[in-house]
């Protein structure tokens, strides 16, 4: 970009501003706003050539129409997922959209494995006990991951990174992906159909994008095919799981351990401090009552390395979008 270009950044957290400012030079003028993008906050982007959005910002057709009317011609997502974007509408409006397709996949993979270990060895319970001077081991019994079978649904960059870690633990790896890449996985991994993965896995971890086909992939029918007491981990997108079906499975002990870094209705909860408020989401509150459930607030990506890469790619995307140059990370209606 030659002259300064105004970019409005929605859903800004302090770390977003810090890392984006570190990556940009004088050719970008930032407008950081804490509000999420929706039909009521579109006007905050007035005068901007482009906006920068995150996972829970609303980029549906009505919002995109208002952005176009406000003079916005490009959207830079500072995330890999784009299920919140109506790409068909964006193309019709001639609004260019780009994402960050890969950023430190190890960050998410390591968080995923951390959740497995924490749930298995009851680390969260042990931490609280010791702080209360309770050193009893009763109720903290875990199991060896070594020798167990893990099912990975999705073997993109994050799924591959997770597979490498779990292979190092000595786990058997079953994988499902519409685009198999066996050459990128440990030799011990093998691709199977979804029914086999459900039937044979002691641990199931989700690493696939949220699409109309994968929405509520984990539902009552899928859960019925799984082992009793299965561990289920989701660090991908909340909509992959039918939360009410999962709660029923927790009550019947079909699910023995559940780790969630994402939640289908997280837009009203995550990335905010709600400690002084009553949370009205009864489904989420019900999840919190289970002692075998571990929830983190969409923090799997949250490492220095990942934020550095996200900011760097986002700024490069913005420069290309705003100057009309080809952008390798640009999305199309067929993405």
Blueprint of the fold:
Layout: E1 5-9, H1 14-23, E2 28-32, E3 50-53, H2 61-69, E4 74-77, H3 87-92, E5 96-98, H4 105-121, H5 123-131, E6 149-153, H6 157-168, E7 172-176, E8 189-191, H7 194-200, E9 203-206, H8 220-224, E10 230-234, H9 243-251, E11 255-260, H10 282-288, E12 293-295, H11 304-323
Parallel strand pairs: 1-2, 1-3, 3-4, 4-5, 6-7, 6-9, 7-8, 9-10, 10-11, 11-12
Helix pairs in contact: 1-11, 4-6
A few lines on this structure:
With 335 residues, the protein is of the alpha/beta class. Helix content is 33%, strand content 16%. Strand 10 (230-234), helix 9 (243-251) and strand 11 form a beta-alpha-beta unit.
What does this structure look like?
- The structure is a single chain.
- This protein has about 325 residues and is an alpha/beta fold.
- The strands form two sheets. It has a seven-stranded parallel β-sheet, sandwiched between helices. A five-stranded parallel β-sheet has the order 2-1-3-4-5.
- The longest helix has 20 residues, at about 305-325.
- Helix 6 links the parallel strand 6 and strand 7 (about 170-175).
- The chain has helices at about 15-25, 60-70, 85-90, 105-120, 125-130, 155-170, 195-200, 220-225, 245-250, 280-290, 305-325, and strands at about 5-10, 30, 50-55, 75, 95-100, 150-155, 170-175, 190, 205, 230-235, 255-260, 295.
- The protein has two domains: about 5-105 and about 305-325, Rossmann fold, CATH 3.40.50.720; about 105-295, Rossmann fold, CATH 3.40.50.720.
- Helix 1 crosses helix 11 and helix 4 packs across helix 6.
């Amino acid at each position: 970009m030659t002259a300064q270009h105004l970019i409005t950044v929605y859903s800004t957290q302090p770390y977003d501003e810090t890392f984006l400012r570190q990556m940009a030079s004088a050719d970008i003028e930032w407008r950081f706003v804490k509000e999420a993008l929706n039909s009521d906050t579109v006007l905050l982007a007035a005068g901007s050539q482009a906006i920068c959005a995150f996972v829970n910002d609303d980029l549906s057709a009505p919002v995109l129409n208002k952005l176009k009317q406000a003079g916005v011609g490009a959207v830079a997502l500072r995330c890999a997922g784009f299920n919140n974007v109506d790409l068909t509408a964006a193309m019709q409006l001639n609004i260019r959209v780009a994402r960050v397709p890969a950023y430190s996949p190890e960050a998410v993979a390591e968080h995923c494995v951390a959740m497995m270990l924490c749930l298995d060895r009851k680390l969260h319970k042990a931490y609280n006990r010791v702080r209360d001077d309770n050193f009893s081991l009763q109720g903290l019994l875990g199991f060896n991951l070594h020798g167990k079978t893990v099912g990975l649904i999705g073997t993109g960059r994050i799924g591959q990174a997770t597979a490498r870690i779990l292979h190092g633990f000595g786990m058997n790896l079953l994988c499902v992906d519409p685009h198999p890449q066996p050459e990128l996985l440990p030799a011990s991994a093998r691709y199977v159909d979804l029914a086999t993965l459900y039937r044979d896995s002691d641990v199931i971890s989700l690493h696939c994008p949220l699409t109309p086909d994968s929405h509520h992939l984990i539902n009552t029918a899928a859960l019925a095919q799984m082992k009793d007491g299965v561990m289920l981990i989701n660090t991908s997108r909340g909509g992959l799981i039918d939360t009410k079906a999962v709660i029923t499975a927790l009550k019947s002990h079909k699910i023995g351990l559940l780790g969630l870094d994402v939640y289908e209705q997280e837009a009203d909860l995550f990335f905010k401090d709600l400690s002084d408020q009553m949370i009205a989401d009864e489904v989420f509150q019900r999840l919190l009552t289970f002692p075998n459930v571990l929830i983190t607030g969409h923090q799997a990506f949250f490492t220095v390395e990942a934020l550095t890469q996200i900011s760097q790619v986002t700024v490069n995307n913005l420069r290309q979008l705003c100057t009309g140059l080809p952008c390798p990370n640009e999305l199309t209606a067929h993405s």
